[in-house]
Amino acid sequence: MSAYALPGPGLVKNPVLPAARGGQDSQYAAGEAQLRADILRRYQDILQQIGYKDESGNYIPGEVETQAKRQEAELTRNQGLAEEEVNKQAQREGTLFSGLRSQNIARAQHPFVQGLADLAADVPKQLQQLYQQGTRTLEDYTIQNNLLLADAAARGAARAAAAAGYGGGGYSGSSGSLAGGGSPDDIAAALAGGYSPVNNPVLVAPSGNPPTYWTPSYRSPEGYNFKTSQLERMG
Questions:
Q1: Which positions ≥6 away from 25 have C-beta within 8 Å?
Q2: Which position has the higher pLDDT, 211 or 127?
Q3: Start-end of H helices in 51-175
Q4: Which helix (H) or strand (E) covers residue 53, if one does?
Q5: Residue 71 in contact with residue 115, Cβ under 8 Å?
Q6: Which of 50, 163, 178, 216 could form a disulfide linkage to 130, CB 3.0–4.6 angstroms apart?
Q7: Helix 99-164 and helix 184-192: axis angle, to 10°?
Q8: What angle do CA 203, 209, 213 make, to 5 degrees?
């Protein structure tokens, strides 16, 4: 385990995302597949930077740690070269065993000592940020997939409403309304048990032969239960 590695389990190489919800339409299937691929791509990008544990539990360092080790080695080398140069200069000047040599060594090595201290402080912070980003990336799948499922449910409810004759003439995709009154969102929400503004009327298709009047049905603040409206005939 490296000195820069994160404590704890870290990120796994092959995360397991929740299975896609079955029984949905093709639009959901395509959207979920694209979402899954995007999440895994983003996760793998983070994994390449932060490192991971393989199937055997071995830690594989990422690009951040690998680069930090290179910088650490270079700084350590330059630190030694700085001391060597000061010693050579002191030998030429005959001050090899004086207190001035120690001061000159400390002064010459200071930039490299500071660089090593910065690495020790900054790299773990960078790894921690990447770790949090990786876990949030996996959580994003659930959030975005729920939105896709909600859209699929709304489409299914709208199709069911149109097939059952609600709206009195079918669905107009370009105008976003149902011929005969009532928006598809209103009817879809009613069929799906969803929310909508209080007292927002939904015009539901009457039964009977022939229908001559539409009766609005209103939602209550406690929630709306979709019920068949009563047909009122003129005269």
A1: 152, 155, 156
A2: 127
A3: 63-93, 99-164
A4: strand 51-53
A5: yes
A6: 50
A7: 90
A8: 35
What pairing do the DSSP bridges indicate for beta strands 177-178 and 171-172? antiparallel
Peptide bond into 210 cis (omega under 30): yes
> How does pLDDT run across 71-84, given as a tens digit for each residue?
999 999 999 999 99
| Residues 6+ away with beta carbon under 8 Å from 187 | 157, 158, 161, 166, 167, 178, 202, 204
Tens digits of residue pLDDT in 113-124: 999 999 999 999
Q: Where are the domains of the chain?
A: 26-164, 168-235
User: What pairs with residue 171 in β-bridges?
Assistant: 178
Distances from the Cα of 6 to the Cαs of 10, 42, 109, 137, in angstroms? 6, 20, 29, 18
Residues forming beta bridges with residue 12, ordered by sequence position = 53
How far is 229 from 207, CA to CA, in rounded Å? 9
Give the DSSP H or E segment for 216.
strand 216-217
Q: What is the pLDDT of residue 170?
A: 42
Q: Which residues are 59's β-sheet partners? A: 53
Minimal CA–CA distance to 146: which of 27, 16, 28?
28
Q: Answer for the pair 15, 44: CB distance below 8 angstroms, yes or no.
A: no
Q: Which of 124, 88, 122 is nearest to 108 (CA)?
A: 88
Q: Are 190 and 203 in contact (CB under 8 A)?
A: no
Q: How far is CA 129 from the centre of its chain?
A: 14
